[in-house]
Amino acid sequence: MATKATAPPKPIRPGLVLAVLATASFIAVLDVWITNVGLPAIGRGVHEQSLSNLSWVLSAYAIVYASLLVPAGRLADRYGRKSGFILGLAVFIAASLGCAVSGNIGLLIGFRCLQAVGAAVLTPTSLGLVLTTAPAEKVAKYVQIWIIAGVLAASTGPVLGGLLLEASWRWLFLVNVPVGLVAIVAAVRLVPDQRHEQDARVPDALGALLLIVAIGSLALGLVQGTDWGWSSAGVISSFVVAGVALVAFIARSSRHPAPVMRLDLMRERVFASANAGMLLSLASFSIMFLSVILWLQYHWGYSAIKVGLASAPGPAVVPIFAGIAETVQKKARVPAGVIAAVGALLMGLGAVLFATGLGSQVHYASDFLPAWLAVGAGAGMALPTILSSGTAGLAAEDSATGSAILSMFQQIGSVVGVSVLVAILGVASGGAELQVFRHAWYASAGVAVLAAVANLGLTSHRKQKAAAQPAY
Questions:
Q1: Domain end: 236, 259, 282, which one?
Q2: Do residues 247 and 294 share a domain?
Q3: Are both 170 and 42 inside the same structural domain?
Q4: What does the longest C-alpha to C-alpha distance in the chain come to?
Q5: 120 shares a domain with 24
Q6: 288: how many CB neighbours lie within 10 A of its CB?
Q7: Quick one: angle between helices 434-455 and 269-298, nearest 10?
Q8: Is the confidence at residue 461, as pLDDT, over 70?
Q9: Which of 77, 199, 340, 363 ranks highest by number of CB atoms within 10 Å?
Q10: Same domain, 126 and 160
Q11: Residues 331-383 pLDDT 10s
């Protein structure tokens, strides 16, 4: 009996595959930035005026994303990266549609959590596919392009968010649907199937849940402190639950075969410093970014599109100073820790300039722009340096896991920053007095100084290995 000939496998087209994977990275990062810009409009759309409640639109996403990033990556390695990538995109798109049609804050937060599940799956799978489909001689270049897609989302997010808000706050989420659908169709046709790592261990689901409870309870206590009272049973209970859940998470991670966070990696000084620096840097930046959005809208009366344009220069200079930092590190041989520390101090300087320069009178060019450019320049120097140098002391086989943990601490930092800002502004939220905003900016500056101290630990006394690929 004649056997039916099998068709030869389709040739991989790396450039097109990279375009699909970078698009996914773009929309996952974009969703964070345009949601920050649109938070006041979202509040009006779902009839919610409390900043403490609205902050969960940002924090719920970051908490779930941070907690599931490592487990989702391991599951994808076990069951297939292409299928995981497509599944993550599909969940992200469906949740985006759910966010757009939400009529109340509770439903919106629920769909934001589902969005984060999708993002936690598609982020590591897309990076993994980039690494395995890129030509051997172009792996570093392809990873850099994938990262740049996220940077572009950050730099264009404020303006795009302002434009979308001119139509409706719902378009902040609806924009993901057509782009995501095109990416899914392209992924089905272009992205190759890969051999699954069948021996990959099932990740620690309970550990991920404990981390969600720990971060969520901490955020709850911070954002509700002013409203409930700092000595109230609710706030104290939130902090106690956070502490107990954190201890349980650490204890479980120390003995589970596939933990959310490998504690043994924290014994490496550079890696531990990178995680501390990442958390503190993101906390400082998150305080500033959301406070700036609220200030421009509530105190200077800027429209949504004007807020987008006014806040765009800060993120826009991030890639410029990231390039400068890389050049200085390589050619002038300035230690990574010094560059990241200077970047954090620049962010702190921007916060101090906001605190001492802004007032009720609108002087954008003289009072706002210099401070915001200092923040963007500092973020450009600090954050990419932490990402690229943080895993330099780890073994090669631990680089991917280390990069994912760094990304986890990045999200935790944003949760802490938003929660601290809400706690400082209190029930007055965006309408708080100038002096209250100044407290927030000085707090941001203080956190930035702590970040600079932590970042100094990035400089290893040993000869560092080539930096591993960072993950968002």
A1: 259
A2: no
A3: yes
A4: 88
A5: yes
A6: 29
A7: 160
A8: no
A9: 340
A10: yes
A11: 888 999 999 999 999 999 999 999 999 888 889 999 999 999 999 999 999 99
Residue 3: φ, ψ to 5°: -90, 145
| pLDDT in the model for residue 98 | 97
Indicate whether this model's pTM tops 0.90: no
The stretches of 134-232 forming alpha helices (DSSP H) are 139-167, 171-174, 176-190, 205-223, 225-228
- Token pair recorded at residue 228: 């409930």
Among candidates 427, 425, 415, 446, which has minimal Cα distance to 218?
A: 415
In CATH, what number is assigned to the domain containing residue 91?
Answer: 1.20.1250.20
For residues 226 and 245, membership in a common domain is answered with: yes
Torsion on CA atoms 363, 366, 369, 371, rounded to nearest 10: -110
Lowest mean pLDDT across 1-5, 181-185, 424-428: 1-5
Q: Please give the Cα distance from 314 to 309 (Å, whole number).
A: 10
Cα atoms found within 13 Å of the Cα of residue 68, Cβ hemisphere only: 22
Contact 124/469 with Cβ under 8 angstroms?
no
In this structure, the answer to whether residues 280 and 156 fall within a common structural domain is: no
Residue whose structure tokens are 């990076």: 127
Does 296 lie in the same domain as 432?
yes
Amino acid at 424: I
Number of domains in the chain: 3
Residues 212 and 136 in one domain: no
Choose the weakest-confidence range: 79-83, 110-114, 132-136, 466-470. Answer: 466-470
424 has a pLDDT exceeding 60: yes
